[in-house]
Amino acid sequence: MVTEALDEEQAVELATGFKALGDPVRLRLLSLIAARQGGEVCVCDLTAAFTVSGPTISHHLKVLREAGLIDSQRRGTWVYYWILPTRMAALSRLLDSSGAATPAGA
Prior knowledge:
Structural class: alpha+beta
């Protein structure tokens, strides 16, 4: 839970992550990567789950990577992707209101 207001740099950094997640294809890609047993997934396994083209999937993966939500490594012909937990935790903490006080009358 957030205990202090964000400074400008933190707000810009977190906004980049939330903006990246604002597209349904990217949100779904992130969930497919996160749900994968073993913690990483080949791009070849991701493209089959969508009706959009391979280059479009690559673009969306690039946006997620540039936002710091995922990372990747080329191995031979294929690229493998995994979640960056620290970055995801920062987004999650901002949204976690479980410890927030309930306003009077709510």
